[in-house]
Amino acid sequence: MEKLQNQIALLKDELNSLKGDRKEFLTDDQQLLKDIELTYTSNAIEGNTLTLDQTSELIQHGITVGGKKLDEHLEAKDHYDALVWMRSVASSDNPIGEKTILELHRRIVASSRKEIAGMYSQSARRIYGSDVIFPNPLKIPTLMENLGRELSSSSNTPAEAFSFHHRLVSIHPFDDGNGRTARLLMNMILLRGGYVPVTIGPEQRSEYLSTIREAQINGDAQAPAFQEFMHLRLIKNMQEYIEVLREGKEGRERQQSSALTPEQLAFLHRNRGPGI
């Protein structure tokens, strides 16, 4: 794990160097595309069948897809709205705690499951086909209060971001939307710590869920396999951001080199050879 953490530290230094004095890593247009991808992947993990292109059309142009369930469209819209709010909190000085988690959840299911938005479950929760047993609903308020208290003093490291993700889904305080809430909370902590958000695509779904459930079944709060998986995902996402930033830097440099001053143009005019 130390090797992965050292690699992340080096990538973070490179990201900051490429960003320069700009406030954000990406332009607004680039950030929009990344946020659409985050929305698509987070919902796809939960079984939403909207494709990346369909999610993009819905968020950017309000175009719905025939043959798709209304709930799937509402889930995409809710997640994107919650993501935008998450970014605003991450970039502010507002403390992150239990109320933040409740507000994230409220926004994530604001349209699709508004009857449970921002409310802890009152019944037993089970995942079909899983041996994982979640805490008694009577214990949820105390568990979440403790989680929120620790969250408010987080050092915003990747390890802590992934730990709070795992702890939240292990409490499983809501009737629906636990995974989406945990992933946005994780990314809020990462952004506040100066990192990039992590995407987990459908192709990583099996490994992602298995590492979570392995730790839950074993009662291992450290969740080493999950931590390793998430650190590797962060490295992958940081490398993608670096590639985008490098391409942008090279493009700007090409533009600058092609923009000749009047003196340079006059020199070329005086010294050009005979025409053909």
What does this structure look like?
- It is a single chain.
- This protein is mainly alpha-helical.
- The chain has one domain (2-20, 27-245): Fido-like domain (Fic-like fold, Orthogonal Bundle).
- It is 64% helix and 0% strand.
- It has eleven helices and no strands.
- It has helices at residues 2-19, 28-45, 52-61, 70-90, 98-108, 140-151, 158-171, 178-192, 205-218, 224-258, 262-271.
- The protein is globular.
Oligomerization status of the protein chains = single chain
- CATH level-4 homologous superfamily: Fido-like domain
What is the structural class? mainly alpha
Radius of gyration: 23 Å
Total separate domains: 1
Keywords for this structure?
Fic-like fold; mainly alpha
Topology at a glance:
Layout: H1 2-19, H2 28-45, H3 52-61, H4 70-90, H5 98-108, H6 140-151, H7 158-171, H8 178-192, H9 205-218, H10 224-258, H11 262-271
Helix pairs in contact: 1-10, 2-3, 2-4, 4-5, 4-8, 5-6, 5-8, 6-7, 7-8, 7-10, 9-10
Compact description:
By secondary structure, this protein is mainly alpha-helical. It has eleven helices and no strands. The longest helix is centred in the C-terminal third of the chain and has 35 residues, at 224-258.
